[in-house]
Fold this sequence. Notes:
The chain contains eight helices and eleven strands. The protein is α/β, with parallel strands linked by helices.
Amino acid sequence: MPDKPSTRAKFKRIILKLSGEALAGKDGDPIGSAILADLSRQVKEIRRLGVQIGIVIGGGNIFRGLSGEKNGVDRTTGDYMGMLATVINGLALQNAMEKAGVPTRVMTAIEMKNVAEPFIRRRAVRHMEKGLVVIFVAGTGNPYFSTDTTAALRASEMNAQIIMKATKVDGVYDADPMTNKNAKKFSTITFSEALQRRLKVMDSTAFSLCMDNHMPILVFDLFKKDNIKNAVLGKKVGTLISN
């Protein structure tokens, strides 16, 4: 029996971008079990709708290369440390999802065969076609590239329809809503407008990749109840950036 229109997914294949900070627990734990459990629940629900899911995860809750540089860590070394932090987060997320009954594969851009599969594009696509959730870790495998850039790259490689960037704010504003009460939220905006207004949606490399490859980005609040599912269903959530 087909799904009702109200519960039919708008997208067949997505890349969900999660920051490492989003995994941090309220008690100061860098990886919160309650947050992992809720993420797993939401991913399980959208998987049931037939959505193919790839997840790119950051490592900022454990270590960030740019922050390390400020503390005397060589930038290249710091970036590799940050990549390894994403592996820790990816394994934690995999563990939580499989406890929830969601089959996953962790694929890494830095080979570590005893921990995760090496990233091979065709294999990743095949995993997604089989209904497995693929968690992409270790960034692009190269220093000086952010996990936003990884999301843009993997989305293009996987032929995803959209990048869903889950953040701590409910969209893109013309000013910082934390400091400016009059900040205006955009429901939709073009890549060109975002560039002209110098809105910090993603870093410039990631943003250029998305713009050049016509990859829309949806920025939304991860912590609003069922927001991932609502975004997949095409409801009015966050801010959509597109051509």
